[in-house]
Amino acid sequence: MKRLSYLLLILMVVTVGSVTAQQQKLAQTAMKFLSVSVDPRAAALGDALTAVSHGATSLFYNPSGMAWQESNLDIIVGQTQWIAEINYSVASLSFRPGSGRFGVIGFSVLMVDYGDLEETIRFDNDQGFLDVGTFSPSAWSYGVGYARKFSDRFSVGLQVKMVNQYLANSVIGMDGEGEYMRENVEERVLAYDFGVLYKTGFRSLNFAVSARNFAPEITFSEEGVALPLTLNIGVSMNMMDLINQGSTVHEFLLSVDAANPRDYSEQIKVGGEYTFLQTFILRAGYAFPTDEQGITFGVGLKQSLNRFGFGADYSYTDFGVFSNVHRIAFRFSL
Questions:
Q1: Measured in whole angstroms, how far is the alpha carbon of residue 65 from the centre of its chain?
Q2: pLDDT tens profile 14-30
Q3: Is the peptide bond before 289 cis (omega within 30 degrees of 0)?
Q4: For burial by CB atoms within 10 Å, which of 78, 187, 192, 264 has the most?
Q5: Of the candidates 158, 229, 228, which has an alpha carbon nearest to the alpha carbon of residue 194?
Q6: What's the pLDDT band for 239 if we cut at 50, 70, 90?
Q7: What is the mean pLDDT of residues 238-258?
């Protein structure tokens, strides 16, 4: 079993390295909503969550982290107030039948509301355009995932998700009677996320690799575009283990990711999380290089009563010339 675990880990690293070497920076992808971080804990850690196991939330970052959840049921619901008054609503659920003997199964939902936008077409008048009303773009993703431990150190995970982007029922011209002719601009595709997580055995040091948004190209109005494929390698560790291993009074998680997105430059993401008495949490994170996104701060609270667990997380991100980003989420476990 250990040999199989090591073989799977090496295979994953080689595969990711090969794909990374072949990637071209296209400077443009479709369905960019899949790249937005929707969890306040992850965002507050600079999105360096690849090597951190986090129950149902792992479906959005590294599905293999879901295999290490300690509760039989984990549920998270949250909302992100993104820039330009765009709102993201998210929910995920994971459960482990047979107390984990058969792995962990998860479901995820992501909905995006872009609000109402003005629709115009080019026209031969003083303004150069004609107002034809409003339209309401939207996007969603529904996923099902599975994760399993192959040993007490190694896990793999996969998520399959149906992804949809609706842009508009746009005006493409006029017919002979002066009526608008419209074309529905909408695409749907199956996308895949997968990853591995390896517990090295040295204190709480974890190593992980993930790939998100594998999918074939889609076509919007005869233009072929790719999804925002992102490859990540991450490490994490509770640094207090170097001083007093097993202490639950003070914990300080340090997490670092190296990300290789399809459509922009590579990034380093760093996050720190201090937990006091396994209840009160302070977080901060930063990703670089970036153009406008600054440091993210976050707070959290978690509590357990018998078998029922409850948690709440909030994060704040400075986005430069854009409006600041706020995220909030609630977690329940049994």
A1: 13
A2: 444 444 444 455 457 88
A3: yes
A4: 78
A5: 158
A6: very high
A7: 91
CA dist 93 and 125 (Å) reads: 54
Torsion sign across C-alpha atoms 12, 257, 90, 331? positive
**Sign of CA pseudo-dihedral 242, 243, 246, 251:** negative
Contacts of 101 (CB under 8 A, 6+ apart): none
Rounded CA-CA distance 91/331 in Å is: 10
CA distance 56 to 145: 10
Report if pTM > 0.90: no
H helix runs in 37-181, sequence order: 40-44
Give me the pLDDT at residue 27, please: 56
SS3 per-residue string spanning 16-40: HHHHHHHCCCCCCCCCHHHHCCCCH
Average predicted confidence (pLDDT) for the chain? 89
Residue 113 sits at the vertex; the CA angle it makes with 112 and 115, to the nearest 5 degrees, is 155
| 292 φψ region: left (φ > 0), alpha (ψ -120 to 50), beta (else) | alpha
User: Which structure tokens are listed for 115?
Assistant: 């609000």
198 has which bridge partners?
154, 207
In terms of Cα–Cα distance, which of 256, 260, 251, 259 is closest to 271?
A: 256
Distance CA 45, CA 38 (A): 12
CB 56, CB 67: distance < 8 Å: no
| pLDDT tens digits for range 189-234 | 999 999 999 999 999 999 999 999 999 999 877 778 899 999 999 9
What is each CA distance from 302 to 80, 246, 255, 282, 330, in whole angstroms?
20, 19, 20, 12, 10
- Number of neighbouring beta carbons within 10 Å of residue 69: 23
Tokens of 2: 């250990």
Radius of gyration of the chain from its Cα atoms, rounded to whole angstroms: 22
